[in-house]
Task: structure prediction
Amino acid sequence: MTTWEYVPLAEYTPPTPSVKAISENWFAEVRRRFGAGKAQAEPFEERESLKALPAWQLQRIAPAPAWREAARALDVRLEHWLADRQSQHAPLLFIGTPYSGHVEILQLWAELHEWRVIKPPTAEEVFAGDLSWASDQIVDDQPWVFPHLERTYLRHTEGLGLIRRFFDQMYAGNLGRGLIGCDSWSWTFLRRFWPEPLSNTLALRAFDEKRLSYYLQALASGGEDQDLLFRQSDNGKYVFSPPEDVAVNGSVHHSDYIQRLAVHSRGILGIAWTIWRNSLRIEPDEEIAEEAQAEAVELPGKTVWVAPWSQIKHPVMPPGATRHQAIVLHALLLHNGLAGEQLAQVTPLTADEVTGTIYLLQQAKVLAESAGFWRVTAQGYPIARQFLVDNGYPVDEF
Amino acid sequence: MNGANSITDILALNQDNLIAIALILVGAWLLIAANQRIFPWLASRVPNQHRNFFLAGEPVLRLLIILVSVVLIVTRIIDPTFENLVVLLSATGLALGFAFKDYISSLLAGVVTLYELPYRPGDWITVNGAYGKVRSIGTRAAEIVTLDDTVVVIPHLKLWDQLIHNGNDGSRNLMCIADFYLHPDHDAARVKQALYDVALTSAFLQITQPIFVIVQEKPWATHYRLKAYPIEPDQQLHFVTDLTVRGKAKLASLGVRFAQLPAFPEQME
Result:
């Protein structure tokens, strides 16, 4: 099986839930809305014998996704495009959802080919609408990669001029050959006012149950056969395919955890990976001392416990001020994150309302700040997206 | 003659029947009261996109309860043969037709309302100059809540002879219009593009719906009508306010002058 596959945008489909998962989610939602159940599943009730994995073990069992492999796979996918002389002035657009790794993939792909990576404009340059930001970085018709198309606009009356000029120049062939990355939410908006969508669009195929299972298992083994077993902590079911002797004995002890993870994360690897890491538990006596880790001790036959899906604590939207929360979340997703002052510029809310709403969403772990930008967290993304759907907001097509 | 000749001949109003009828009426009243509470309660707890569906279910279920109650009562007090029914309906129709003509007309229009759906709970309608959101559809009248938070009761019989304007007709798409009156001396194409961007950058805009900028030259100004759809019909005031505030700021930044009519036209001097 190939982990990294790329498909045209029209062929992208997120994983679909099973009937069982749909009905359970529906009942949980009904219980939540009508007050018959708690607003959120009980947090994982850790048995005394189970504890979260220390950071070094997490790093070993569930390290960060290897985007370099994804970049190599992209390279294979782009062979024809690279060889096609007709595409000298036809930019290729690579669309990715938040946490799907499209920015990292493009940057690594640019490294492979030694193409120039164009830095995004600042907010001031966006408002000024001056295209010299791009033309200064594109020299001698050298090919380029621009992973942050969403940074070239702000949803403000003064914030659309730059991207219009960028598109105009690009289609006129004045910017040379390029590979462009764009966030899926931004693309939904940009398609609205740019009537001529690019024909060359790609997306990383969603991680369905099969692909996710394969990837997480390979991630844990680290390319070596460590013989780790992942079992659900409440019933002992195997999260991945059970060992051969168990399977041969007849009963299939297979957990539906990965299927639920794939559906909940909408096939977005970064989100699935974050939840996966938070679900892992281990017996204290199985914990390998850090010194031993330093000596690269293997973990043969060890069992890593996985919290059952129903006991994983997901963020919940805070009550009250629904309209403000929806406006802030939608603005952040449309721009793939914004600084606080930009958020106030692109929403009709007052600075106090923005601050208060951010605080509420931050407390609920739906938002987090990183490098001066407020973004929807990986764990908060599914609930934020569903919240916007429930309130009638247009969402991305991923 | 063996057939029933008058209404009193065909009615079987003994004590048992009267008690049964009273119980049916009380039961129907209780069911309707419960129905009027349960559906709005359900509607307040489902996602916005399904809210109107639940609100619209209340009058339909109420009608069913009434119909079942009427059938139960009629079959209890008369033998429901064709002749008996004709006598009963003609007698009651004659009596009620004179005494409660408008009331009966409203009731019938209420039934037609549930079938033809000229308005449903959640719709934004204008009837006789009153504009508001349909809060409930009763047996005799509908209630709307205006943008000034005033309840207006509209008898259903208006359906027969009044124009009913429905802004969203059961959907979530309600077109809103922001008007701008500008001094005629300006670059209209530039202003049109600017106003389009004003709508496109509104946080309240439903971007899946189209945006229109309509320009008309008037004797005293150039009239721009910026038409777009908010995400939720309930946001229409916020949306129009947002379009107007940001539209004025954008036009001012372009150096466009707004039309100003003199308080005392020269003709009056």
